[in-house]
């Protein structure tokens, strides 16, 4: 056992030398990456040119020791060290060692005066400290690339670092540059806007990481291990190639939550994104909340073509929105209304001052959706705008849960009516009633009163008037009212009959069971069903039992007073089979197998006997009381 945990290192002179062969110097060559080609400096003391192999693991293939420990071992064995810097992270009590460096994949573009695809320096990595800020990163790039091995002439002000969009391949960038070679060389640059450098007008498929600021650490610039960077050089006039936005909003991306310059923004100007790809990925989540619907949007691009589907287009499901899709398809195939929107007749009726409407946004979105359904050649389109606006008009439709389709149609028609209402200033009108059920003169007055506040294509096509008569049976007075409506609920009749499948099993086991079926009313009694089965099978109506088999067991027997709907329910809900099992002919007239009429007659007889017995017992009691 150890008595003390305090370590004490002795001086090399005090260590006794053991006899034997010397193991030789310490060799770290097997830890260093030698196959990868990357930008290296000529400085011998540069620690960023000694890169550890990816598969090497600490405490297994190598161990981190202090500088004093290395000096002690070096005096004994000798060897070349792999040095790393120690640092203390913010909010940490202990220091750490930066063993693995950050890898930045660089592609260098020539300046616009010398630009050609042949002079583009292909992608090659450079290793940096993730603790450095952008200013230190640029100094490192200048130091390494200006070396005699590479021959660049850079300073921190004559190049910019761009991060390539992860969705864009290197081949895609080269193709874009190939198309813009002439434009890059010949464009006369006039930068008049202080917030934007137009340069040659070519937009880079990514963002400039210098927008984060020179003091920002490189690990906070949204650059990962696999991201690619492009170095853009300027010419002698300090003219660059790509369009550069100076006054960019800094914030947090709505999709990836990365902090930095927001290079993309939704039309509503309420949410911002770091890249256009983030905005595209977040589209399906933000569209539900987006408030941007431009009523001045030009829909003239949607025109009838040879390949137009003419209404035979599907609607994409946006969750549990099949109820909405069915309602929209019904409205889309209401030709009189659809024609009104396809011919742009709705534009002159848009009412942006109506507080009950949506300032024309619903009408514009619905018109756009109809034109996509009728004039596009796509197999299906997403009704995002209509879904979002319907949810704002009626909050019950704001989510993605299942709702009533008829209620949705009414909501859409009400929203369209308010957006297209031709009445700007609605007057006050009084709803009048009468007490004469034969008097229909109030109908006209109430209808004109309704039109005084409501005039639109929806009213012209889909509004009508109810006449409701209320009669009091006590005072014999009437109240007659005339009310407008836009939708009439039409109840569908329920099925009053159903098919009953049964198996007739003869008492004689030599005979084969027979599968039969018949149509029976749901309110029909089992007594009547027994008679029909007896007629079909040619047996007596009291000669069989009706039983239901479910789960390989007979779990229910049907008496004569029950209705046939009990049988149809069980056969529809679960896998159940009805059996008509013939019994021994000796027991046709037993008490358990009597008809309803016979059972009733027996019950009446029993009641009569009970009443007679009660009367006799009362008489006996009276006689005893008189004798006392």
Short description:
This protein has helices at residues 67-76, 134-145, 170-179, 181-186, 276-281, 283-286, 322-332, 335-342, 361-375, 384-393, 405-419, 441-453, 457-462, 526-537, 565-573, 596-627; strands at 86-87, 96-97, 102-109, 121-128, 159-164, 196-197, 206-208, 228-233, 244-245, 250-252, 259-261, 264-265, 272-273, 314-315, 380-381, 433-434, 464-471, 478-485, 497-505, 514-521, 544-550, 553-557, 576-582.
Task: Give a topology summary.
Elements: H1 67-76, E1 86-87, E2 96-97, E3 102-109, E4 121-128, H2 134-145, E5 159-164, H3 170-179, H4 181-186, E6 196-197, E7 206-208, E8 228-233, E9 244-245, E10 250-252, E11 259-261, E12 264-265, E13 272-273, H5 276-281, H6 283-286, E14 314-315, H7 322-332, H8 335-342, H9 361-375, E15 380-381, H10 384-393, H11 405-419, E16 433-434, H12 441-453, H13 457-462, E17 464-471, E18 478-485, E19 497-505, E20 514-521, H14 526-537, E21 544-550, E22 553-557, H15 565-573, E23 576-582, H16 596-627
Parallel strand pairs: 3-8, 14-15, 19-23
Antiparallel strand pairs: 1-2, 3-4, 5-7, 5-8, 6-9, 10-11, 12-13, 16-18, 17-18, 19-20, 21-22, 21-23
Helix pairs in contact: 7-11, 9-10, 9-11
